[in-house]
Amino acid sequence: MPTRKPVSLVVDAFNQLPANATRDDLAKFVNDNFHPAGCDIKQVELDDWTDDPPFLKGVTDPVLRGYGMALHNQWKGLARQRNTDFLCDGCETSLLPVQHTFIVGGANSTREPRYWDTYYIVLGLLKSGLNGTARGMLQNLLDLVGIYGFVPTGGRIYFTDRSEPPLLALMVKNYYEATLDLDFVARALPMLKAEHKYWDTYRSINVTYTRSSNSSSSLGRRQSDMFQTVTSKTTLFGPSLFQTAVQTTSDESGEGFLRPESYSTDYSTFKTQFAAANLFSTAIPTDNLYAATEAGTAPSVQYASIKTAMEGPSLFSTSLSRRGVAMPDSNPFAAFTKSELNILGSININSTIATNLNSIMYQVEVTIANFISLLNNKTDTAECTSYRQRASERRQTLLDLSYNPSTGLFSDFHLTSGQQTDVWSVNSLWPYWAFGDSLPAESAQRAMDSISKLHKRFNGGLPNTLYNTTLNWDYPKIQPPLQHMVVQSVIGLQQNAGLTKRSAAATNGFAVGLVQNSIDAAFCNWYTTGGDVPGVLNQYEGATAGSTGMNFEFYSLGDNGDITTTTSTADQGDYTWTNGVMVWLLGQFSSQVTTPTCPNIVLNLVRNTTVTPSLPPVVTPTLSPSTCGRQKKCSTNCRCIVRRRGVF
């Protein structure tokens, strides 16, 4: 809420409130001294708007074309600009100084740009042909790096105490590939270097461990008895540098960092729901706090400071109890009770090498190196080479510490325990997006087999984790941004030169299957909350009256692994990242996706509408051609490689 008066006068008025101020006293103080929330932004028209978005050119199915156009049209209602001309001299707003039009993270849920949301929004804007709007959003983030040295979590002052996965360099890369605007790259590059320096300086540590002296093998540490001690720099999600800690235990051994924008909620959680030792051993009974370290994003609340992590006995000594819990055979996705699942004690971001964060940093370093080379007539300068060497070392560290050769998968590595976590997260697939094309062929094949098994188990999309903690970043939730990452990871593996043609073809079919799953999930919930396509698809009869279709923050899986649908527009909030991801998927795979299929729902098509028939399922090979390739029919115990529309 912007101030109506200079800040000094607002502070004076607050200090004059009596110690026993009533609710009415406080309400009057707020009304007298503050403008309504949200009046510091205004909705605007998009200067580069087009009624003919390029991503629809290859989409022929009428239902998908109508859905895609509905997604495209939503950009018009999400465009905002800073609106502070009405403020008096000395008055303040919490909105950061963003000078260009931006797309909000949700029409009703946010009033500012958000950092990593912008990555997925820009993906969609570029596919929609709104390049100018995309460029303006990127410039806003670059300007914030110039002010703060990094990109804050969101565009308000209370977000400037933390950041999110540093995807800005990848955003600029996507923009350049769509526009070939080299001048923008030249202007952006100094800020990309500055953001990388921030993460490399304030969020990175030197890790010493044993590595094989056989440096020619990317997995040599596990293949040779000849070892050497090395020190490598890796990046961590925490700690936040600027937050204020509050005491959470009676002996002052525990501190918690509270989010300024959710201070009362977090404070109440600490003070009333947890007591002393229980703070670090009980599950969180609310979805306001995320078990985010093992779901791949920086935690909303960090439950201990550097002090408590470094001084003994460590409060994190109980954290491994979570990782030792056996999932019940009868219902592997049943919610754990407080006594069975340790949430707070396992969030140790100060000592966790996160695979997704370091994979992103690898991508950032490669991108910066490529930009430097591009701006020097495609010549690798000494600076360019240093970024490439840094990326190469980071990649090797992930292979040394986080890679599991028996599964082909990566896991977060805990420095305190000296071992990989056994809590699987979909974000552990990010390395395949970053460098899946350069993994040994055998490793790539094992990774594909593992991911394929997960996909067969969860037809609606890959869940963020396999633990039902009731939290927003755990099973059965799936987030569109992470499904985008999975698709990119499968594409990265598909480009691995060591895969056989047959395996590469199967990988492509698997990628398309993931894309179809993601589109189905978003479309079906949009449809059941009131979405329609005039002349093609009538509105769902069970939709809430007056609703027009929603893009949700996340979607939920049913017990059978299929997506579940809702008719309530209030269930999961509105998030624009879903809009961006779906537009990107439709544009990138336009000729390979078909009319969505919704569980237990028949689309109410307008008569005479012709839709694209669903493709038969891709059968992933499980036996070599020499074993069963010559059989004319598959027996019950032998699944042959089956040709399905050109895919083996």
TrEMBL record:
The keyword Hydrolase belongs to this UniProt entry's keyword annotation: yes
Reaction catalyzed: alpha,alpha-trehalose + H2O = alpha-D-glucose + beta-D-glucose
TM spans (from-to): none
GO biological process: trehalose catabolic process
Source organism, top-level taxon: Eukaryota
Listed Pfam families: Trehalase
EC assignment: 3.2.1.28
Gene Ontology MF, one: alpha,alpha-trehalase activity
Key words, A-Z: Glycosidase, Hydrolase
PANTHER family linked: TREHALASE
Family according to the record: Belongs to the glycosyl hydrolase 37 family.
Name of the protein this chain belongs to: Trehalase
Originating species: Coemansia pectinata
